[in-house]
Amino acid sequence: MAEHNHSLKPYVMVLFALFGLTALTVGVAYVDFGHPWSDVVALAIALVKASLVVAFFMHVKGSTSMVKISVASSIVGVLIFFMIILTDYMARGFS
Amino acid sequence: MSDAASAHHPKDLAHHFESYEQQKQSSLLGMWAFLAQEVMFFSGLFVCYVVYRGMYPEAWALGSQELDWKLGALNTVVLLISSFTMVYAVVGAQRGNRKMIVWGLILTILFGGIFLGVKVVEYSGKWEHHLVPGPHFEWHGDPAAGKEVEMFFGLYFVMTGMHALHMVVGIGIMLVMIPLAWRGKWTKNNYNFVEGFGLYWHFVDLVWIFLFPFLYLLALAGGGGGH
């Protein structure tokens, strides 16, 4: 684990994975999956990229449960926020 | 305080902490609480984006066509590299290697500066094309969509502007950190400030990871084509 031997190698691998996913998100933007699937694909790739940054660059992988609970709370907070507002707007057809 | 007591209390361990580990975990919890607040702040902007895009999907596609995805992709790569150079500084701190910290910070400032330079080029292009919301805004496409495209650009400038402001603040903090790191302020046992700042910088990267596809890549599948 990076925390113990302070190696740069895993970070280099994560960086190249992030480059690859950036190329992928541009590539799939040229494909018309139709509404709403294009957004779903773009969001899915962004979530994978974000997870890599959070897990490795931000050291959440291998962190204490206190840090993990803090991160999870942030994510749940965002989900509640989006769900309440979008339930309202989607039910009214964004009018 | 007796000499014995001060001998048991190293300089890089604050007096109210019992151990380096306790000090580190306190620092991390504080930083993650701050980031939770940052997440809420940017969530507000993203919710606003989603609601207005739901209302004006055509205008969002038209607005997105005016953005150059190549510059957005370039900046994505530049920012990802800057996250790596930040990690390089943190690994340097873990190893107690102050040269690595200093070089990591210098490179992070450099790549952050490139990102902001590209942003200046983009913003000035939008100004020249009258795409900055306000009295200067002009829309030469479908006149019915003008106000709605202006809304897209309002959100574009607020979201990327708040993101860029975070980077400017980060670069300012790093400029202060470099001489401190060089003088050996941070030790193997206490590099908590470097670690915490790294978390902030990666958070800024995270925001861009979501901004890039949802601002720049909306209208590519339809064949695109700007002005």
Task: Characterize the structure shown.
The complex is a heterodimer of chains A (95) and B (227). By secondary structure, chain A is mainly α. Chain A has two domains: 1-63; 64-95. In chain A, 77% of the residues lie in helices and 0% in strands. Chain A has helices at 2-5, 9-29, 37-57, 65-91. In chain A, helix 2 (9-29) runs antiparallel to helix 3 (37-57). The longest helix of chain A is centred in the C-terminal third of the chain and has 27 residues, at 65-91. Chain A is flat, with a radius of gyration of 17 Å. Chain A starts with a helix and ends with a helix. By secondary structure, chain B is mainly alpha-helical. Chain B has one domain (19-216): Cytochrome c oxidase, subunit III, four-helix bundle (Four Helix Bundle (Hemerythrin (Met), subunit A)). Chain B is 75% helix and 0% strand. Chain B contains seven helices and no strands. The N and C termini of chain B lie far apart (74 Å). At the A-B interface, helix 2, helix 3 and helix 4 of A face helix 2, helix 4 and helix 7 of B.
Give the structure's gist in a few sentences.
The complex is a heterodimer of chains A (95) and B (227). Chain A is mostly helical and 95 residues long.
